[in-house]
Structure formats: structure tokens, C-alpha cells
């Protein structure tokens, strides 16, 4: 796949991630229960994936390859655990986004994805193998972290609970690992569809347990909203996890994360401008953040266009 097309796909992953964050965050606010919103999102996505896996030949082949790999122990247990990061993602969306906004949520992900993306590429965890930590990549990661710093300028640290800033960072760390893990699982089963299905099964189990405990203690929501768009988080998640699993072998973890950052930031600024949250950064601050993030992707990818002379 051409580098420009793979990076464009990574940007689309980010656009969809930002859109899902707002949908799940708003559902969590309407229910006053972020965990229940998360399990609703995962459950709808799981239903879609079960139908597709049964209906499509590639899905059926992938499930057979998965079952064979698990029985033969050629697919280790940790390749099946990517759904835990997905569960953390949608739970964090439901708990934080309605208050801090999509932009601030996104910059926390930027920090986590950037730091862990460098580490995972350096140790060769992704399907792309060992990716050298060049000066361009380090500079690009540094600029991505600078974008995070811009987002935190002002009274953000004083107006937002510390755990609402920590959770997005941990989510970003998990997403970088999830993208690499899904890419490796995709290689073993032959299709991103089955890798995505595994994520949603595992995430649904984890969220179901957490939501069940929460409901047993706090009680279930009194009613569910009737707006159909509030239930699109699952389908959106299916799409971007599928794309991530397909793209990571062409980009590596860091470039996939940086491309997604651009899509996330551009979309989050637009969403927060149209529909601001209580603690969302101002428009000027958000524009500066996007400019620095765009520069980070350009710097990190510039070395891919150069070829050594023969």
C-alpha cells in the first residue's frame, strides 16, 4: 500500500475516534452512567460483527482460522486481549467527554499513543517489525507532546479533575498496544474482520462485568434516550478498529497513531466549536494545537519519502 494512502486511512481512524468519543460521551451524560453507555456501544458493535462474520466468507474463514490457531496454540492468549483497551476507550469516553470535550480527551490520547508507539515500534511489537527510532520520529513525537502542552495551558489543570486527564492518557497507551496487537492477530487469522470481532467479544465481557457490578451498587439508569444517533458508537468503533488492524502493518504503530491524531484533533476542534463542553479549550488554543499536531505528522513521515542512494 502506498504510504500516502495508509496515512490517509490513519487520519480517517482519528476522525471516527473523535466522532465516537462525542457520541459515547453524550450517551453517558444522558444516562448519567458512563459504564452503561460503554456496554451499549460495545454490544451494538458486537451484534454487527457477529452478523458480518456469519454472512461473509472471509468472516467464516477468519473464525475457523482463529479456532484452529487457539487449539494449536499458534495464537497466544495475549493476542486475544486487545478488547480490554477498547473497553477502556469507550468507558473513558462515557465518563469524561461530556465534561472535558473531545479536544481535551484527544490530547490525552495523543500523549499516550505517542509515548507507547515509540516504545512498541522500537521493540518490534507491531506487524511492521522493528522500526528505527530516527530523529524524525523523535521530533514528530516531541511535537505531538507539545500539542498536548498547548492544550493544558491556562486553567485546565485547575478546572478538570486529575483522573479525567489521566484516563485519556492511559487510554492512548492502550490504543497503541491494541493497534499493534490487532495487526498481529490479523496476520494469523487472515482478515481484519475477525481481529475486530475478537476485540468486541473481549471488550463486551469486560464491560459487562464492570457494568453489572456498577448497576448492582448504584442501580440501573431510569430510562434510555430515544435519539438514534446516540447508539452509533458501536458501528463507528467497528469501522475504525477494522481499519487500524488492516493499516498497522503498512505504517507501524507510531505513524498510525500520529495520523489518527491529526484526524482526531481536526474533528474534535470542529465538534467542540459547534458543541462546546464545559472544560473544552478555546478556539484559538485548539487551532494552535492542531497546527503543531499536523507538523508532528509531517516531520515523523518525511523520512519515508527519502530513499538511500544505491
What would you note in describing this structure?
It is a single chain. With 310 residues, the protein is an all-alpha fold. Helix content is 79%, strand content 0%.
- Alpha-carbon distance between the termini? 23 Å
Number of helices: 10
Give the uncertain stretches in residue-range form: 305-310
Shape: globular
Order of helices and strands: HHHHHHHHHH
Structural class: mainly alpha
Give the biggest sheet: none
Annotation, overall tally of beta strands: 0
β content, as a range?
Answer: under 5%
Radius of gyration: 19 Å
Helix content, binned percent: over 70%
- Average per-residue pLDDT, rounded, comes to 82
Features:
single chain; 310 residues; mainly alpha; 10 helices
Summary of the model, kept short:
The chain has 310 residues and is mostly helical. The chain has helices spanning 3-31, 34-55, 57-72, 82-123, 135-151, 156-159, 162-189, 192-218, 233-274, 283-301.
Write the layout of secondary structure elements.
Blueprint (H helix, E strand, L loop, with lengths): L2 H29 L2 H22 L1 H16 L9 H42 L11 H17 L4 H4 L2 H28 L2 H27 L14 H42 L8 H19 L9
Helix pairs in contact: 1-2, 1-4, 1-9, 2-3, 2-4, 2-8, 2-9, 4-5, 4-7, 4-8, 4-9, 5-10, 7-8, 7-9, 8-9, 9-10
Amino acid at each position: 500500500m502506498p504510504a500516502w494512502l495508509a496515512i490517509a486511512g490513519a487520519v480517517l481512524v482519528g476522525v471516527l475516534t473523535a466522532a465516537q468519543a462525542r457520541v459515547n460521551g453524550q450517551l453517558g451524560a444522558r444516562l448519567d452512567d458512563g459504564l452503561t453507555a460503554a456496554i451499549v456501544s460495545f454490544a451494538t458493535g458486537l451484534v454487527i460483527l457477529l452478523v458480518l462474520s456469519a454472512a461473509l466468507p472471509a468472516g467464516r474463514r477468519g473464525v475457523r482460522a482463529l479456532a484452529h490457531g487457539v487449539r494449536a496454540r499458534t495464537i497466544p492468549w495475549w493476542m486475544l486481549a486487545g478488547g480490554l483497551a477498547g473497553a477502556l476507550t469507550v468507558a473513558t469516553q462515557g465518563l469524561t467527554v461530556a465534561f472535558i470535550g473531545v479536544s481535551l480527551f484527544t490530547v490525552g490520547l495523543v500523549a499516550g499513543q505517542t509515548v507507547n508507539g515509540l516504545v512498541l515500534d522500537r521493540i518490534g511489537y507491531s506487524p511492521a517489525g522493528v522500526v528505527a527510532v530516527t530523529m524524525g520520529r523523535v521530533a514528530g513525537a516531541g511535537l505531538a507532546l507539545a500539542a498536548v502542552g498547548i492544550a493544558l495551558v491556562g486553567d485546565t489543570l485547575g478546572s478538570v479533575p486529575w483522573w479525567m486527564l489521566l484516563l485519556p492518557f492511559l487510554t492512548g497507551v492502550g490504543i497503541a498496544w491494541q493497534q499493534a496487537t490487532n495487526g498481529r492477530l490479523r496476520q494469523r487469522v487472515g482478515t481484519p474482520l475477525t481481529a475486530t470481532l475478537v476485540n468486541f467479544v473481549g471488550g463486551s465481557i469486560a464491560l459487562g462485568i464492570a457494568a453489572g457490578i456498577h448497576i448492582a451498587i448504584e442501580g440501573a439508569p431510569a430510562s434510555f434516550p430515544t435519539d438514534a444517533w446516540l447508539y452509533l458508537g458501536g458501528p463507528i468503533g467497528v469501522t475504525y478498529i477494522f481499519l487500524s488492524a488492516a493499516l498497522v502493518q503498512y505504517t507501524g504503530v507510531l505513524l498510525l497513531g500520529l495520523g489518527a491524531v491529526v484526524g482526531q484533533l481536526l474533528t474534535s476542534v470542529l465538534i467542540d466549536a459547534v458543541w462546546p463542553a464545559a472544560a473544552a479549550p478555546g478556539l484559538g488554543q485548539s487551532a494552535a494545537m492542531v497546527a503543531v499536531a499536523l507538523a508532528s505528522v509531517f516531520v515523523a513521515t518525511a523520512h519515508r519519502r527519502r530513499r538511500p542512494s544505491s
